[in-house]
Amino acid sequence: PQKLIVDVDTGIDDSLALLYLLASADEAEITVLACTAGNVPTAQVTENNLRWLDVCGAPLIEVAVGTDGPLVAPLMTTEDTHGPHGIGYAELPPSTRTVSDRTAAQAWVAAVHQYPGEITGLVTGPLTNLALAVRLEPDLPKLLRRLVIMGGSFDHPGNTTPTSEWNVAVDPEAAKEVFDAFSEALHPPIVCALGLTETIEMKPHHVARLAEIAGSRPIETLSETDEVGIRSAASNPMVRYFTDAVRFYMEFHQAQGEGYLAHMHDPFAAALALHPEFAEYEEATVDVELDGTLTRGTTVADRRGFWGRPPNAAIAVRTDPDAFFDHLLERVGRFAAA
Ligand code: BDR
Ligand code: CA
Predict the structure, then answer these.
(1) CA 73 → CA 180, 297, 334, distances in Å?
(2) H or E element, residue 316
(3) What is the 3-state secondary structure (H, E, C) of 123-169?
């Protein structure tokens, strides 16, 4: 199977990304699960990850804890979006697992040294840990097989400021260091930015389908038209916990005027880490604005060579969301059923 380092700020959509990867054991082996501050503080992210691993009956995986916050900026978190503990209304049982002695950055470096050229890195949170890892090992971009990032927004409104996307906005300095360093990578990192991930809309009928595949008692109060909220009644624990998490996210999106749905940014990035063929890409040179009074944290893509610098991003620009959801729900549903 494909070896992975997975770096997350779990997070409701990070949770489903993790479930998907654990459900993909035939194809993917998580060598390090790194925890970064973002949606919620690092300690809470760590707790959430340990608990999800238990819920999923995952094998022993190195869980490495990152720093308390960004390289330079003060930490901002978003409990409004992801719930007080980062996983919506889900209340997962406490885990007995322990964390690694290595920091997240050290774990990244150790893993790429152990398996040079073999690991795909997936980051679905701020890029703090990876930036620190590159400071420790400047050759890291050449030692990774490929990097996949959920982050940034190009020619599309932001979700944190008018032009910035959350994962980059939380730690713009880290994002810039990573994009700069990865101009030396074997392949330009795959970048899943908001313009595409906001087309990946999970609706109640998707959750019902997941429950059905898992052989779980159906979700209560689900209407055919998706207009009525979902209530957690699933008999399958994994489906129930996920439903409890995602309905918080759907309520958040509804309160934003986007409808009763939830954008599956991070699961989409996870799917591209295993199946890049789910999207089409455009190469570009990406940099991050650090100083703008209005635009700090904004990603800028040079597609016409103005800067005279090599491409450091393969921006995912087109996909078929239905095909993606079929793949995701089948895989996670069957895993939950097992
Ligand atoms: C990103 O921000 C986080 O809140 C989500 O988990 C996702 O990684 C989307 O901008
Ligand atoms: Ca995330």
Answers:
(1) 19, 11, 42
(2) strand 313-319
(3) ECCCCHHHHHHHHHCCCHHHHCCEEEEECCCCCCCCCCCCCCCHHHH
User: What span, in angstroms and rounded, lies between the C-alpha atoms of 204 and 219?
Assistant: 9
CA-wise closest residue to 2 among 189, 185, 188, 274 = 274
Residues whose beta carbon lies within 6 Å of some atom of ligand 1: 11, 13-14, 39, 78, 81, 124, 150, 159, 165-167, 265-266
How far apart CA 45 and CA 87 sit, in angstroms, is 9
Residue among 8, 14, 77 to mutate when testing ligand 1 (max atoms within 8 A of CB): 14
Please give the biggest Cα pair distance in the chain. Answer: 57
Model pLDDT for residues 39-66, shown as the tens digit of each residue:
999 999 999 999 999 999 999 999 999 9
Residue keyed to tokens 């591209």: 272
100-136 pLDDT, tens per residue? 999 999 999 999 999 999 999 999 999 999 999 999 9
- How far is Cα 3 from Cα 21, in angstroms, rounded to an integer? 11
